Amino acid sequence: MNLTGMIALVRNDLHDEEEANYRWTDAELTRQINRAVGELSESLPLPAKATLPTTAGSWEMDISSLSDRIMVAAVEYPAGEAPLSYQQFSIWGDTLTITSGSQTDGTNCNVYYGVRHTLDSEGSTVPEKYEDLVAEGACGYAAIEQSIFVINRVNVGGAVTPGALLEWGNQKLKNFRQELRRLGRRNHVRSSLLFNPESA
Questions:
Q1: Domain tally, the chain
Q2: CA 28 to CA 190: how far, in whole Å?
Q3: Span 144-164, mean pLDDT?
Q4: Are residues 144 and 172 in contact, defined by beta-carbon separation less than 8 angstroms?
Q5: CA distance 176 to 40
Q6: Can you give the residue range of the structural domain that contains 163?
């Protein structure tokens, strides 16, 4: 699904499909979708792998080249051994320090990490099974923003409309975040069975 499809999905959930009288602009919904994708990425980042050179005699590595990095799950050093050799590590800023195994000798290591998902006009890295979840989060954000906007404005729904919209939006966000926590815990358990990093 691309961004256009996600906007349509969010509009459907918001019952905002009257094109001549949209309550939210595409730009507003895009912003809320990006917020939801960001939160999804924090719990379930897109897996990535990079092969980086080490510096002989140093435990430290510069990982600033890992763009859009959210977390590091594992460091394999030396790279390509059988069985794979995972090392404990710590991270401070853009510096990764290996804290186990033999001191590096300049050969490569593999860094397994997570990055932010993308969802734009070209497509998406968000798995299909999580598209409805992103839409739910975006709906929650959009409803809350709209409820604040319509306070003290004339509306046909009466004085309860902003409050009802706020309550609905908060419930959507609550459901969204509860599911992210559940999925994040499940993902963490699966990862920790493979590697035991000191800090991710």
A1: 2
A2: 36
A3: 64
A4: no
A5: 9
A6: 3-43+118-192
